[in-house]
Every structure is written in structure tokens, then in C-alpha cells.
Design goal:
four-stranded parallel beta sheet, alpha/beta, homodimer, 410 residues, 2 domains, seven-stranded parallel beta sheet, Aldehyde Dehydrogenase, Chain A, domain 1
């Protein structure tokens, strides 16, 4: 592990200095190489799939693990898309002219070495490398053990292409060891790794937060709320809720909890129960009195990220009550209000503490490409450094360049 | 400790919503109250000083601890200065118009609850509160045990003034317990504290980084270098080095290490030895051959933050060698080049990995007020979130406010 750290640190000084055009050429080269060596990738992936099947992993997991020519093409296309995006480095973010006559420029620079700990999605290996590399960083990747052969196949092709382009191959390094001790050791490598990004389940993220001595960016968990205000357009509310809950179930920006104003609950909840007849509702007493088929909610339901055809329902008698309920139960990811009242929506967006607060739109838009940031490395649910979708800009830091004419301090 | 956390969290939702004018009025009120209750503060401070003297603490520590009417006036003036600065909140930092027709605004918001662990400088209690409050945050403060009475006197006056202004007094909370267990417990309060900022010695900062489960902003340590290039104006170099080393010894932006190009070392080092005759130089063999009175450096010297009239001296034969030496030994704080060669200075500012890189100026300028940021909470030496002087803006986060017309995701 020590060697991996040293290699990454050294590669980082090189990757930080690459020109935008060089990085873009290399990204396109890697995309071609992935397509060209597709058979090697599929062969490695087959090994992972066979192990997974012999261990009787569930279908969803096997689906996430599985690669095919279409998926490899999507992964390669992702790199080509990155290659045409603006370079996030060497940008003068601000200029200051203090009274001492110095000229101070705040300039974007890479973060350095980024560690990513993730579960068994082999596409993350390439996607994460691409984003980090374009932002001038190097990566140390620790993927789930189920995807080890696929990940190493990707790493081999990327490293070879980097070498062919006379770049340091250690700009990407996958940790080969599949045991937990390797993950534990990685989380203590604060000498070498500048930031650690865990991607995956709540359990994984909490474990990394607890054990890491490296700064961590918390991503992912989304107990997203939609508040239907008394001044809502109910047809719009229905369409947005259906989209936010049902369009894709297993994602962090899906809606998990409905908060509804009492003044419209009697009209709205029966409409909702009919429209979303295959969804299970865990509701408070007042909502259940309106729609008896709703299941009685326990306090835990309001903290639950279902990631399935289920949601909690809470009735409130005021905006303030809605805000208090949401701020207590949300995961600071994405929450929405449906209302035609400007004053109410202004209050809501000011008071709700979330990375993204919506007015009259689905929470499903919290996503790097929907925001126009291009690809993303994750959705940050913390307040330090980056919040919400993390694209290229969020994978950079800055430094101050100060130009003087011999100034000394008095 | 649990109660302190809960109180802070609750106060944070209130402090986040205060108008700029309200906060500014309260800051001025607190400044008046500090002057008005000066006798209470001095009485408390006397207790701390008596304990310190009975424990035979060193003079520098007692000086840091000591308050007098002038120092209290400076502290109060600091709050008044803050009150006339621009408010850092509710600023629209960026606006995006993606193809889906949503309007996305990135708006500055407070970080929330900020924990500060510091040593025995009672002024930090008020300064840190002021900055955090102006940026909409609440603070939990854990100062050194030597200053406990002074800190509690400040806390009492601030809490009383907050209450008189109908604000939640728990916007500031000082931890009363002076034992280490309280500090340990505070570092694990990730449920309540959004970010932890240690201020003080390297030992303190390292301990916090190791034990905290809360995101930490690393501040302080400065092994600052000045590289005198072969194309330097040597008179300017002398003046800058004298300022950076001697103007104030115990500060993190003081210079600790000289790197000098061989081509001018023979001329420059004797000039330097004469001008800074009361400084001790720990030099490599080549430098020592030029000035025999220099002491032979050990490898450790090049990592040393002397904070006294001492510095290390390293000779190099190229810019690249200078860059490699500095990047290996610096603490990512502040480093400078003295040169009249534009190409050389451009390379240096690009390649040096530090929060602040200077051309022809003293490293002593790395400071919030010298940068024009107003007061500062510290100098960040990490890359995540904030780098360099941390003023009001660096004590904020942001959220995205997204306005739609019923958009759903396809």
C-alpha cells in the first residue's frame, strides 16, 4: 500500500501539469482502446459473473456487475464526452487588488490524489478515472471484490494507453487485494491521499466516515421529500410525484416521503392513491383517516430511504411544520415544494437545509448531467467543499498566486 | 455534551435566517457590552493569570493569556469592523440554464455548527464567534484550560447581549469542562458539528485530525520557503528575507527556509549573513563552504518550522531542483520566488504546491486582512473546501435552488 501511495503522489505532480489538449487526446485514446480490447474486458467480466453466480448473488447485483458491448460503448462514449468539456484547471477564479499593491489571483488547481471506495459497478472504475484525470488528479480505486477481474482489465488497458502516451501509468491504480484490511489501510493513507470519496450503500459511507483519517466527501443517501402546499397545482403535483417516486426506484434522488398540507389532503390523497395504486404508503393518522388503505407509519418510516415502490406520508397544518418535519428527517440531499404561491416557495427554499431545493420540479433532476455539469462523481450531502452534484469543478481546489514588486509587511 | 450539541443545532437554524442588518446591529451591541463590562473580563482574566503564574507557565504563554483595556478595545473594534463588511450569505454565486428549462441558482448559505478547538488566547473566543456569527453559523468553542475564566466571562457577556436582542444565546457556547475527555467527546459529535477547526500547535492539529469523526479544516503550520533565483534582484531579496524571517518570529507565515541558486550563492550568502547577523543558519555543505559560520544542517532542519531567529539554507543548481526541494519540505502554506525572469516565475507559481505562491514579495502577506478579506479564522493548509486565509466566505457553503414549471425527468 505504501508503494501505491508513493506512486500516486509522484504521478499527481505529473498529471497536474498536463495541458488540456494532451489530456483530451489521451481520453479519446483510452476510449478507442476500450473498444479495441473489448474481448479482454468481457473475458474478465465473465470470470466475475461466474463467481457471482456460483455464490448466488442477487439479480440486481449481477446486473450491476454485467458488461456487454453496449455497456462498454457507453463507458467509452463517456470518456469522449469528457474530452470535449472545458478544462477546469488554471482558471482565474478571482482577482484581488489589496491596498498593499499586490496582485492576488485565485487559480483553480487539482486536488491531488483522490481515493474512491465503491461497490461492484465496474463502470465506476473508468468513469471515476476519467473525471479525476480531466481535473488533473490521480486516482487510487478500491472497487468491490465481486468486480475485481473487470476492474483490473480496465486498469490494464488504461495504464497501457497512458504509457503509450508517455504518461505515468500510476495516474490510475486499482487496489488488487480484495480483503477488508486493504480498505482499512487505504483509509489511513492521509500522507498520500488528499480526499476520499466513498460511493455506494449507507453502510459503506458510514464506515468510511468513521475510520478514515483522510478528509471524506459524503455522498449518496437521499431521503428526498416533496411538500404539496395548499396552493399547489394538484395535477402538476401528481405528475411530479409519480416521476420522482416511480421513474427509477433505486436512485438517491428518488422521492421517499410526501408531506401534504391538510387543506388539500382530502382532495389530493385519494387522487394520489388511485394514480400510484401499486405504491405502498406509510402514512400518519390523519392521512390514513382520509385513505384507509394506507399503512400506519412508524416513526422510523419517516427516516427511511425505501428505494422501492413505497413512501411515507405526513400531513401538516402549516409551511413551518412542513419545513421542520423535512429538516429533521431529510438527508440534506434534495427536497421539493409544489406551490403556485411565490411567497411560500421563497420561504421554503430559504428554510430547507438541502443540497438542492426545488420549486415545482421533480427531485430526480439532482444529477450532474441534468445540471449541465457533464458527468459526476457523486452527489455530496455534506456542506464542506462541495454540495450536490460533483462534476469536474468540484474535483479541483485553488491556490493564490501573488505578484509583488518587492513588498514587505509593515 | 449532548445538550450542547442539540442547543447548537437548534440555534443554527435561527442564526442562518437572521438578516444582515440584524447581525450587524448585534455585533456592534456586543462590542459595546465588552467595553462596558471590561472590569468583569479583567477580573476573570486576573484569575487565569494568577493560576498561570502559580504554575510557572512561560512568559510567552502568559503574554498570550493577558488582557488589558487596550486589548479588549482591539477585540471590540474587531467586531465593529466585521459589522461593516459585506454579508456573505444569500449571494447568487452562479446561475445555470440547462436544456430541461429549469433555472438553477447556486446560493451561499452558512456551514451550520462550527467547532473550534484552540489554545490559551482568550481573544480567539470573541474573534471566532464574530466571524462565524456574521457568516450565519453557531459556534461551540473549546479553548485552552489556562484561559477558562476569561473565556467564560466573554461567553456570558455575548450570551446576555444575544438574549437582549431576542436571539438564541446558544449561538455561542464555550465548553466549561477543562479536561481532555471533553475535547475527545467534542471531536466525535458529528451529529451536531458540521466542521471542526483546530487552531494552535502542530501537536493539537494532528491530534484533532487523528481523532475527529467530524470534517476538519487543517490550519496553521508554515514551513515557508523563499527561493532566490539566479535572476533575482539581490537587494530586493535581502529586504524580503529580512522581513519574512524577522518582522515577527512566531507566526505561521514567517519564512523558515532559504533556497538559493548556486549561480548567485557566492555573492548573496555573505550579504545575507552580514545583514541578518543575529540569525542562525542551518546550511547544506555548499552554502557552508561559502559562509563557514553557517551551522551544518541535518535532514530534519529542512522540515523545521523554527518560529525563532533561525532558518535552513539549501543551494540548488536549477529551478526544477528548487521546486522539488520545496514541494517535498513545505507545509503547503506559503512559498516565494525572487526573480526578474518572467518565464521562471511563471514556472515556479505553476509548479509549487502551496496555498499561496509569491513572486517578489514577503510570505508574511498570507493573512486575511492583508488579502482584503477582513478578519480570518485561520490559514488553511489543506486542499478541501478552503485554502489559504479563511475569511467570511470560507465559513459558508452553498445550496442549489431550482425553479421549474412542473418538469419531470425523462
Amino acid at each position: 500500500m505504501e508503494t501505491i501511495g508513493l506512486n500516486a503522489k509522484k504521478a499527481a505532480t505529473e498529471s497536474a501539469q498536463l495541458s488540456a489538449s494532451k489530456k483530451n487526446d489521451v481520453l479519446k485514446d483510452i476510449a478507442s482502446a476500450l473498444l479495441h480490447h473489448q474481448e479482454d474486458i468481457l473475458k474478465a467480466n465473465k470470470k466475475d459473473l461466474e463467481t457471482a453466480q456460483s455464490q448466488e448473488l442477487d439479480d440486481a447485483m449481477i446486473d450491476r456487475l454485467k458488461l456487454n458491448p453496449n455497456r462498454i460503448k457507453d463507458i467509452a462514449d463517456g470518456l469522449v464526452k469528457l474530452s470535449i468539456m472545458d478544462d477546469p484547471l488554471q482558471e482565474i477564479l478571482e482577482t484581488y487588488h489589496p491596498e498593499n499593491g499586490l496582485i492576488i489571483e485565485k487559480v483553480s488547481v487539482p486536488l491531488g490524489v483522490i481515493g474512491i471506495i465503491y461497490e461492484s459497478r465496474p463502470n465506476v472504475t473508468v468513469d471515476a478515472f476519467g473525471l479525476c484525470f480531466k481535473a488533473g488528479n490521480t486516482v487510487i480505486l478500491k472497487g468491490g471484490k465481486e468486480a475485481i477481474h473487470s476492474n483490473l482489465a480496465f486498469e490494464a488497458i488504461i495504464q497501457k494507453t497512458l504509457s503509450q502516451n508517455k504518461l505515468n501509468p500510476f495516474i490510475i491504480q486499482c487496489i488488487q487485494s480484495t480483503d477488508r484490511q486493504a480498505t482499512q489501510a487505504m483509509m489511513k493513507m492521509d500522507q498520500y491521499i488528499d480526499v476520499l470519496i466513498p460511493r455506494g450503500s449507507q453502510g459503506l459511507i458510514k464506515a468510511v466516515l468513521k475510520h478514515s483519517t483522510i478528509p471524506v466527501i459524503e455522498t449518496g443517501a437521499g431521503n428526498c421529500h416533496i411538500y404539496v402546499d395548499k396552493d399547489a397545482d394538484l395535477t402538476m403535483a401528481l405528475a411530479i410525484i409519480e416521476n420522482a417516486k416511480c421513474q427509477r426506484l433505486g436512485v438517491c434522488n428518488a422521492m421517499e416521503s410526501l408531506v401534504v398540507h391538510e387543506a388539500i389532503a382530502k382532495t389530493f390523497l385519494p387522487m394520489l392513491a388511485e394514480q400510484l395504486h401499486d405504491v405502498e404508503f406509510f402514512a400518519d393518522t390523519k392521512a390514513q383517516a382520509i385513505v384507509p388503505s394506507f399503512t400506519q407509519a412508524t416513526p422510523l418510516d419517516f427516516y427511511t430511504e425505501y428505494l422501492s415502490k413505497a413512501m411515507s406520508v405526513k400531513t401538516v397544518s402549516s409551511l413551518q411544520q412542513a419545513v421542520d418535519h423535512i429538516n429533521e428527517h431529510n438527508t440534506k440531499h434534495s427536497d421539493a415544494i409544489i406551490t403556485n404561491n411565490q411567497e411560500t416557495s421563497d420561504m421554503f427554499t430559504r428554510l430547507i437545509d438541502s443540497s438542492t431545493v426545488y420549486v415545482n420540479a421533480s427531485t430526480r433532476f439532482t444529477d450532474g448531467s441534468e445540471f449541465g455539469f457533464g458527468a459526476e462523481i457523486g452527489i455530496s450531502t455534506q456542506k464542506l467543499h462541495a454540495r450536490g452534484p460533483m462534476g469536474l469543478k468540484q474535483l479541483t481546489s485553488y491556490k493564490y498566486i501573488v505578484k509583488g514588486k518587492g513588498q514587505t509587511r509593515v
